[in-house]
Amino acid sequence: MADPQPVLNEIIDTLKSQKQAVERNIELVKSRNKILESIVPVDKELLLKEKETLTGIAGALKGVTDSVNAVENTLVSSAEGFVNDIFGPGLGGLINTLTIGIFHQMER
């Protein structure tokens, strides 16, 4: 029967080279993980900045909406005052109710 020692030596050499390749891959993965760990906090900061930006935009939009509503209320009050000045409080109140009051009801 043939000597199994050369075959066993070849298998041992193959296993050693595979072990070295696995160790190199592990080192690469470790270095990659270190790089990713340094990137992850930046991503968290970006998400926080994005959230702050969206909150800021929502706040600005609310501010603009409130400003538009304030201008609208000011114009309506000015119109009511103008009608009251022209027609007096009795008839002006009736005109305001029929015109501006209906406008308010349609808005709601």
Tell me about this structure:
This protein starts with a helix and ends with a helix. The protein contains one helix and no strands. It has one helix spanning 5-107. The protein has 108 residues and is mainly alpha-helical.
Rounded Rg: 39 Å
**Poorly predicted tracts of residues:** none
Order of helices and strands: H
Q: What's the tally of helices?
A: 1
CA-to-CA gap between the ends? 101 Å
* Major sheet attributes: none
| Proportion in β-strands | under 5%
Name the features.
95% helix; mainly alpha; 1 helix
Brief sketch in words of this structure:
The protein is an all-alpha fold and 108 residues long.
Write the layout of secondary structure elements.
Layout: H1 5-107
